[in-house]
Amino acid sequence: MWWVLWVLAALLALFCCLDVWYFLRVPLVIIQAWFQPPVWDITAEQTLTGRVTLHDIDMCHMNNARYLRECDFARFSLYTRNGVFKAARALGASMVVGATTIRYRRALCIGEGYELRSRIVTWDDKAFYLEQRFVSTKDGLVCAVMYCKQSVVRGSPDKIMQHLCKRKVECPEFPEDLQHWVNFISASSQALRAESGLEEKNK
Question: Are 128 and 142 in contact (CB under 8 A)?
């Protein structure tokens, strides 16, 4: 009987200290992606389906933070299927989110189904840029759209692309709205560096 109490206490402590459901879902998403057909076109769109549950809601609609969480899982699936994860690992590189921006157009309500459509739009010498859209299955409306800057650490998108394609790959042009956002990131970074005195130290 005592061991049951110890197990329950350990589980309670685990759930209090960690986002257990997140860490359980990540490997599940990756395993599911392994058993799906690979995506050979690096810029091809991948679609995952979902439905707003009681865990997601805030005032009967999907909580703002849940959109970003679902985008995490969709990127894990995308990178597994298009080979980016495998290529980064082979090159000793890793990837982190450098910036995101999301626009909410209409709430996804409890019980409503949606498609999460993810694609790599383009890249530069330091990061991939992705677009992720939440599309309602009820009427096809784009309820939210997010841009993500996926920075490559100890490597570069060009090296990953060359590893995948075995040749030099030209990156697609930046769409106008994405370029505006990238310019904002650059301006914000410069302002923060100046504010902290880093620019003076680097001179």
Answer: no
H/E stretch holding 170: none
Handedness of CA 73, 76, 78, 80 (dihedral sign): negative
User: Nearest 5°: CA angle at 8, between 7 and 12?
Assistant: 115
Cα(91)–Cα(163) distance, integer angstroms: 8
Tokens 């080979």, residue located: 83
Go through the domains of the chain in sequence order and give each one's CATH number: 7-172 (3.10.129.10)
Among candidate residues 25, 30, 166, 27, the one with its CA nearest the CA of residue 90:
166
Instruction: Tell me the pLDDT tens digit for each residue of 28-83.
Output: 999 999 999 998 899 999 999 999 999 898 888 999 999 999 999 999 999 999 99
CA 110 from chain centre, in angstroms, equals 23
- pTM for this structure? 0.90
